[in-house]
Specification:
The protein is an alpha/beta fold. The chain is built from ten helices and 25 strands. The protein binds alpha-L-arabinofuranose (AHR).
């Protein structure tokens, strides 16, 4: 049995551009994200390019991630950048406070910027406001961006970089309401004013300064921060305000029911409400000359298996992939004001794109969503009307069985539609109709055989050692998902993400 649904597209009704930065990412010194996931030094068995593992470079290069946020997260307000430059053998070892692990400082600013170049992404650096100083932050920006004849710039050149790195995105602290200093918004706002008074001139006119924003459980942080900045007309110092939203708390990465899955998808609305609220605030705060935008620079699933002792390691299944896809549809909707989002985190931590174990690497289902959704970047969001049944769960709750989004490429020649079948049990028979540039009405019908099936062999046994035998995520046009793994994976194999691109001619 399949359920029937319909999507009608109006490519001539263009809304806003979908910023490519919505598909950015986040890598922190946490667990095995940086060390092992990216940096392996002179490991004898893992092929590397000057210490950076080659398989990671290859896997991330394919995604063309627009920006990568680093070094944290909570680690950022505990990090002193000078520890991580110069000869590696002389770098101090420190205690990574929040994640309770040693920090060798082998991977520092120069390694990060080289990694960004290797994978073709733009760096987004988060400064230390919680335990750092204005002087330290300014020196870091100077090291990266200045071309003046100064000792700090000379240091950068001595470390092998004759030209400025021109880092465009600078975060002024991270979660300063929590791990970034337990501040009140007024206190943070005062610090923000002070930091940016000096940073703006050093970072350069192109640079963007990003303020720490709220999360769904923190209702008045953004209001109070913006109200403080309004005083004395300091709102011009804010380019973006960055929110965080994690979902899935308390539930398991692989042991979940269909109802848990539906509840997770429904909970994306929590992120939506939080973002809409922030967008309303920046709309009211901005002026025609100065528009403040919104980032969601940490988001994703956070399952109960991701704990500090596990280095926030968790498995990644089709549940995570579908969650990512539905979130992207939300982000497209809000794209007039939402400029960047950074899923947490790139490798081996939370909703990862890649998992590694020693010399082995696998691409998670979430990696495939980033890959599949590439054509949406910089396209125009178009009007879409969807008809689908609702799915009922936990007795009284309901969500639509489909989630969809469509864009037209910036040259107007191609249209892309992404559709997620949220129903864990039934396939969907989908009729898609649209009118083209000439006003000719066309329609196509998609049945099972047209779907691209997202297949993934689940890593339920990952921790106990069968990683090498698993099938890596890949698409198969013709066959239904192979049933692999045990209970949880078989259930998840019922979910599908399907995808089509239309040629305008
Ligand atoms: O991504 C893990 C942590 O979650 C980050 O360090 C912090 O900013 C957030 O609380």
């Amino acid at each position: 049995m399949s359920f029937k649904a319909g999507i009608s597209l109006s490519p001539r009704e263009k809304r806003h551009t979908v910023s490519r930065y919505l598909y950015s990412h986040f890598a922190e010194h946490l667990g095995r994200c940086i060390y092992e996931g990216i940096w392996v030094g002179d490991h004898p068995r893992i092929e590397n390019d000057g210490g950076i593992r080659c398989d990671t470079i290859e896997a991330l290069k394919k995604l063309e991630l627009p920006a990568l946020r680093w070094p944290g997260g909570c680690f950022a307000d505990n990090y002193h950048w000078m520890d991580g430059i110069g000869p590696r053998e002389k770098r101090p070892r420190r205690h990574n406070l929040w994640w309770n692990q040693p920090e060798s400082n082998e991977f520092g600013t120069d390694e990060f910027l080289r990694f960004c170049r290797l994978i073709g992404t733009e760096p987004y650096i988060c400064l230390n406001v919680g335990s750092g100083t204005v002087e330290e932050a300014c020196a870091w920006v100077e090291y990266c961006n200045s071309s003046q004849n100064t000792s700090t710039v000379a240091l950068c050149k001595a470390n092998g970089h004759p030209e400025p790195h021109k880092v465009m995105f600078w975060g002024v602290g991270n979660e300063n309401w929590g791990c970034g200093g337990n501040m009140r918004p007024e206190y943070y706002a005062d610090l923000y004013r002070r930091y940016t008074a000096y940073l703006r001139g050093i970072a350069g006119p192109e640079a963007k300064l990003i303020a720490c924003g709220s999360h769904p459980g923190l209702p008045d942080w953004d209001e109070r921060f913006l109200a403080n900045l309004r005083d004395g007309n300091m709102l011009h110092s804010v380019d973006y305000i960055a929110l965080h939203s994690y979902l899935g708390w308390g539930k398991s990465d692989v042991n979940f029911s269909d109802e848990d899955f539906l509840n997770l998808i429904a909970s994306i609305d929590i992120t939506g409400q939080c973002l809409r609220r922030a967008i309303g605030l920046v709309q009211a705060a901005g002026t025609p000359e100065k528009k403040i935008g919104v980032f969601l620079d940490e988001w994703g699933t956070w399952w109960k298996e991701a704990t500090v002792p596990s280095g926030l390691y968790q498995q990644n299944t089709l549940q995570d992939a579908l969650f990512a896809a539905v979130n992207f549809h939300l982000f497209h909707e809000l794209g007039e004001w939402l400029f960047m989002t950074n899923m947490a985190q790139t490798i081996n931590v939370l909703q990862a794109l890649i998992l590694t174990r020693g010399p082995e690497l696998l691409l998670t289902p979430t990696w495939h969503v980033y890959e599949m959704y590439k054509p949406h970047r910089e396209g125009f969001l178009i009007k879409l009307a969807q008809t689908s049944p609702n799915l009922r769960f936990f007795e009284t709750k309901e969500i639509p069985a489909l989630s969809s989004s469509a864009t037209v490429s910036s040259d107007g020649r191609r249209m892309f539609l992404s559709v997620v079948n949220i129903d864990p049990k039934q396939p969907c028979s989908l009729a898609v109709s649209f009118d083209d540039a000439a006003g000719v009405y066309r329609s196509r019908h998609f049945q099972r055989r047209h779907d691209l099936w997202l297949r993934y062999a689940l890593q339920r046994n990952c921790r106990s050692g069968s990683l090498g035998q698993q099938t890596h995520g890949r698409f198969d046009r013709t066959r239904p998902p192979k049933r692999v793994g045990s209970g949880a994976s078989a259930r998840q194999a019922g979910h599908r993400v399907f995808w089509r691109g239309f040629d305008r001619r």
